[in-house]
Amino acid sequence: MACPSDAERSLPGRRTPLVVSAVRGRVAALAALAAAVTGVLAWRYAGEAAAGRTDSRITEVLDDQPDLAHGVARELATLGGPLPVAVALLLLAPLAAYLRGVRGLALVLAGPPTAMVTTSLVLKPLVGRTNGGELAFPSGHTTSVASIAVTCAVLVLGLAAVPRALKLLAVAGLAALVLGVGVSLVVRGMHYPTDTLGAVGVALAVVPAVAMVIDAFADVVGDPGPDPRALDPREHPTEVLPRARPT
User: Fold this and answer.
1) What is the DSSP letter of 1?
2) Cis, peptide link before residue 138, omega less than 30° from 0
3) Torsion, Cα of 77, 79, 80, 81 (10° steps)
4) How many CA atoms lie less than 13 Å away from 102 in the CB half-sphere?
5) DSSP 8-state class, residue 130
6) Sign of dihedral through CA atoms 186, 109, 30, 20?
7) What letters, b where the CB count within 10 A reaches 16 and e where it falls short, cover 209-227?
8) What is the pLDDT of residues 144-196, one digit of tens each?
């Protein structure tokens, strides 16, 4: 058996699943709930082009905020654009590989792209909700930022060396970033609030599901099976079979 390297000893998260078995059930339930919320919103706003009652109420609240808050919010929408998202993934991939090994790298390469494709190529044309003549549900910008944020949360929460309080602080910061991007898109009139909520649902449904698929695949590939040295050479299962009688 190969001895773990110094990096693996110092970073035990590299040798652990992305989603540990103790919380796998709760994570699966969260993903299912997020998918259900997105599905309900998709059904409710399918084919529509106007804001719903909930959208109008939330937008009124946001419009009442100070001009400074509006100015800050407007700038955050750019974070969901193609260039910032591509840069974020390129920077996150090696960091994920260093902190969480091959599983972490696989999550970065598969999780957010799967969520983005689900939004842009599946849900948007299927739901057909528009804003200003453009397909709007779910929000592509919000999906991009939220899926990267959920990926970061999965990577951070699995680090045993990081204190729990620091993990929760990191997750709260990621959630605030996603909220800021969603608010920015609404303030700029690019999306309705429910578009951004549906996008967060996509991220929370897809990324954890991808993480658990990666874990399942890695467990199968990494399982060497029973150790032949542990088998008793005196045991011969074929000897218990009845022998054919000579004719």
Assistant:
1) -
2) yes
3) 100
4) 7
5) E
6) negative
7) bbbbbbbeebeeeeeeeee
8) 999 999 999 999 998 888 899 999 999 999 999 999 999 989 988 889 999 99
